[in-house]
């Protein structure tokens, strides 16, 4: 018992971390709880980072949840962290056995050659040719969104545009990545065929990403307090899960089961096509080119097709089924929520009354293109102001507020020595909103992203990081930008938006991502 007490005391004091972080400024690390109480008091990690950066400067050490982490909050240091280190931090969790193996092979956590293989398997999905092929599907989804907005507008109601945009981005993931229609949008309610599956899927993703997911179980608390007993805690948690742990595990299983089903269906589909082709029979499924004109066409060159055919370049072997399922799982987790959040933040900014002149410039740009025209892939370069509005939205509210890396070797950061293996973080939200780097950061000024303007000249050369940087930067950047641009074009061809009073300050919800906690409520004004 004495030994146990000693271990608790030593862990609470964290001598090893103190040695690793020696000399690096930062908030006092409370015995046992690190900086958790302050994070709770400030209302989020991204908030405490702002407070600490002001107090301690561009390099500071904090104890976020489980781990000590050295944060940087300057464009130059952020670049150094992101370009010199290729691995994201892996935080301790309660997963055990097969679930732990699944997590370890997740794209977001893969390392070295495996990362190159996985990234290589994903890449063709984002080639210009593929993106161009997705345009009609994305436009289709944006069109349904506009129809849904019109339905709500007719009832003269304030609507949660965040929720509606989310339903749209889910549809886009369905058609482009999985070749299925999720029928999530209001104007598409009649097609309910698989909407229950989708509701389940969304709930599951929500459960996995919920803020409580970080402390979802009483076992998590034991893991924080007694990390040296992790194997035992995980074993007990696995066999006797409490309600919180059960919820997250169930969520993961639902997502895995659904993506497995989607892949199996698609595989069968491909086999049937090949069989018909070998017999010289006509295709049952029209090619994408044949469906682009159709309102509800599905792209056969989908992500699932890529996964089914993916091979490991190094070994020539195909990816294991576990790895394929894993990639599809990551696609579900990473592709829709961030895009929906960035659109919702931009729409929020454009609905604020003080930004009326920005909207006028946006509608003028869209009208110059055409109020009833569908843009082609090339046309998308003709909307610099729209793109600037989107960029500025992600500056004020970066959908991923913190980036992480593990120090691959010892390095120097802002005059401090960093030991190999130290967890590093980039305080993106804080940096994007720091007056030391951005003049009047509280103002929504898309001009910052318009070449030749004084606002653009005053912008830092680096330090704008909504998609990260380096070998681990967002692979879906072009896909996301294209989808967001098409959506804004389609919406502002028909409407402008008015913010519901009472949302002058937008409550935020922080998980790995940042989103509007209670939605974004607007009234649509027909143009
Ligand atoms: C506006 C929308 C999006 C934002 C703001 C965003 C942001 C990010 C950020 C910040 C990272 C981490 C970068 C780093 O650590 O340096 C990331 C990684 C990633 N994103 Fe996105 N993302 C968006 C959309 C998408 C979409 C649409 C997809 C897929 C279709 C996607 C797939 C991924 C993947 C797979 C990674 C991991 C890349 C790697 O480790 O190699 N993202 N994203």
From TrEMBL:
UniProt KW keywords: Heme, Iron, Metal-binding, Monooxygenase, Oxidoreductase
Keyword Signal included in the entry's annotation: no
Ranges where the record places region Disordered: 273-295
Taxonomy of the source species: Eukaryota, Viridiplantae, Chlorophyta, core chlorophytes, Trebouxiophyceae
Membrane spanning stretches: none
Name of the protein described by the UniProt record: G8325 protein
Pfam families attached to this UniProt entry: p450 (PF00067)
Family per record: Belongs to the cytochrome P450 family.
PROSITE patterns referenced in this protein's UniProt entry, alphabetically: CYTOCHROME_P450
InterPro entries: Cyt_P450, Cyt_P450_CS, Cyt_P450_E_grp-I, Cyt_P450_sf
Species per Swiss-Prot/TrEMBL record: Coccomyxa viridis
Top-rank taxon, per record: Eukaryota
Keyword Cell membrane: no
């Amino acid at each position: 018992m004495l030994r146990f007490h000693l271990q608790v005391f030593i862990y609470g004091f964290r001598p090893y971390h103190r040695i690793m972080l020696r000399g690096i400024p930062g908030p006092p690390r409370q015995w046992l709880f690190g900086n958790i109480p302050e994070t709770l008091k400030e209302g989020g990690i991204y908030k405490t980072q702002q407070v600490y950066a002001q107090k301690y400067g561009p390099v500071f050490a904090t104890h976020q949840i489980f781990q000590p982490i050295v944060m940087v909050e300057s464009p130059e240091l952020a670049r150094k962290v992101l370009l010199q280190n290729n691995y994201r931090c892996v935080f301790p969790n309660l997963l055990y056995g097969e679930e732990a193996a699944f997590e370890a092979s997740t794209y977001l956590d893969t390392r070295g050659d495996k990362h190159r293989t996985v990234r290589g398997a994903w890449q063709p999905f984002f080639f210009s040719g593929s993106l161009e092929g997705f345009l009609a599907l994305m436009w289709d989804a944006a069109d349904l969104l506009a129809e849904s907005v019109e339905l709500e507008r007719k009832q003269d109601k304030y609507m949660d545009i965040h929720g509606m945009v989310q339903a749209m981005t889910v549809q886009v993931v369905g058609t482009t990545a999985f070749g299925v229609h999720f029928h999530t949008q209001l104007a598409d309610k009649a097609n309910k065929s698989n909407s229950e599956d989708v509701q389940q899927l969304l709930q599951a993703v929500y459960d996995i990403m919920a803020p409580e997911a970080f402390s979802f179980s009483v076992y998590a608390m034991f893991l924080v307090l007694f990390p040296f007993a992790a194997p035992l805690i995980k074993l007990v948690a696995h066999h006797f899960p409490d309600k919180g742990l059960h919820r997250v595990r169930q969520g993961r299983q639902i997502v895995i089961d659904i993506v497995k089903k989607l892949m199996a269906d698609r595989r069968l589909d491909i086999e049937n096509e090949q069989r018909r082709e070998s017999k010289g029979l006509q295709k049952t499924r029209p090619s994408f080119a044949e469906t682009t004109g159709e309102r509800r066409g599905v792209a056969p060159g989908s992500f699932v097709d890529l996964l089914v055919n993916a091979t490991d370049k190094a070994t020539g072997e195909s990816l294991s089924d576990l790895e394929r399922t894993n990639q599809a799982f990551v696609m579900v987790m990473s592709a829709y929520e961030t895009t929906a959040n960035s659109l919702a933040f931009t729409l929020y900014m454009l609905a604020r009354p003080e930004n009326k002149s920005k909207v006028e410039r946006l509608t003028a740009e869209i009208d110059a293109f055409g109020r009833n025209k569908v843009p082609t892939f090339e046309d998308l370069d003709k909307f610099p102001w729209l793109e600037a509005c989107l960029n500025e939205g992600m500056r004020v509210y970066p959908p991923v507020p913190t980036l992480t890396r593990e120090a691959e070797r010892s390095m120097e950061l802002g005059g401090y020595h960093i030991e190999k293996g130290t967890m590093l973080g980039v305080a993106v939200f804080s940096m994007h909103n720091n007056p030391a780097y951005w003049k009047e950061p509280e103002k929504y000024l898309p001009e910052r992203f318009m070449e030749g303007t004084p606002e653009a000249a005053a912008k830092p050369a680096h330090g704008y990081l909504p998609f990260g940087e380096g070998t681990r930067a967002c692979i879906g950047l072009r896909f996301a930008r294209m989808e967001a641009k098409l959506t804004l074009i389609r919406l502002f061809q028909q409407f402008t938006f008015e913010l519901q009073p009472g949302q002058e300050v937008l409550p935020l919800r922080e998980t790995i991502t940042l989103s509007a906690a209670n939605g974004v409520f607007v009234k649509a004004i027909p143009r």
